[in-house]
Amino acid sequence: MTWDSFTEQPRVADLLAGSLRHDRLAHAYLFAGPKGVGKKRIALHLAKAIFCVNLPADACGECVQCRRIDAGNHPDVHYISPDGASIKIDQVRALQKEMAMRAVESSHKVYVIEHVDKMTVQAANSLLKFLEEPPAGVVALLLTENAHSILPTILSRCQTISFAPLQPEVITQRLIAEGIASGLAQVASQITANLDEARVLCQSDWFAQLRNVVIQLTQELKQRNSQALFTIQDLFLKHDRFKEALPLFLDLLILWLRDILYVQAGRQQRLINGDQQDVLQGQALIWTKSELLHGIELVMDTRNRIERNANPQLALERLVLQIQEG
Ligand SMILES: [Zn+2]
């Protein structure tokens, strides 16, 4: 994995690769951005690129230096993350002691602090002093999901690098590259902008199962009997976790109904459930456009009602009846 393979954050990768190549790394960086957008991966890659013996200004991932950093036991690369709810002053002091020692492997030392916004006041003050007088060759990589809660005095001593939220296509491509089926990858990337969360979704059997229920239910909703209601009752009866998964279930339902609309409009290239085109084609014949639009509205309304603590089963049964009444 080299800098040019960070397709999810190309701007950040370019910037850091350039600074490294021109020997113009800052003493301290603040990587700011939402969860799951690659802050830690890029921090690790930067650390490897500083020490890698094979590639200048990049990381091979295979040399001893790269592998030790991957394994978390490189003598000149140190990590801190919150010990419980916060980062404590003792952790910062221990880090400073490490950083004051001569580098073992080269003239560089790197430290990474995750959730740097979660420092106690004492820890933050101690870090601030350290940032004011950085030892030569030491690079600080501070990571946060809440840049707005970082002390301005700390901010002013770091170069802030903003990590953009990931685009759905980027998440889809990444998951497919990891061996996840393209259909599920595409759906998951619409549900969350967090790569880790999307991966966990795809890897759980539950996710695929929920989508199958959505497909079954949208078929049953157009039958004139009570099968759709039985399906709902069955779900609540047989699966304890269905109640918690309900917002996800409703999101999947919205994506599915939208896809039927796309099929009707002949815009197959927009499909999210692209792996289910045959089933979508079939359902496009039994739903009308206005039923679909109204249905999506009702599902969104149900989602809001559940967020406001409506009884999940009653809310879902009501949704079924409302859709069937048209
Ligand atoms: Zn290497």
From TrEMBL:
Protein name, UniProt field: DNA polymerase III subunit delta'
InterPro entries according to UniProt: DNA_pol_HolB, DNA_pol_III_delta_C, DNA_Rep/Repair_Clamp_Loader, P-loop_NTPase
Organism, as annotated: Brevibacillus fluminis
Listed Gene3D superfamilies: 1.20.272.10, P-loop containing nucleotide triphosphate hydrolases (3.40.50.300)
Enzyme Commission number: 2.7.7.7
Pfam families listed in its UniProt record: DNA_pol3_delta2, DNApol3-delta_C
Reactions catalysed according to its record: DNA(n) + a 2'-deoxyribonucleoside 5'-triphosphate = DNA(n+1) + diphosphate
UniProt KW Transferase keyword: yes
GO biological process, one term: DNA-templated DNA replication
PANTHER family, per the entry: DNA POLYMERASE III SUBUNIT DELTA (PTHR11669:SF8), REPLICATION FACTOR C / DNA POLYMERASE III GAMMA-TAU SUBUNIT (PTHR11669)
Occurrences of domain DNA polymerase III delta subunit C-terminal (ranges): 223-324
Example of a GO cellular component annotation carried by this entry: DNA polymerase III complex
Highest taxon above the source species: Bacteria
Single Gene Ontology MF annotation: DNA binding
Top EC category: transferase
Keywords associated with the record: DNA replication, DNA-directed DNA polymerase, Nucleotidyltransferase, Transferase
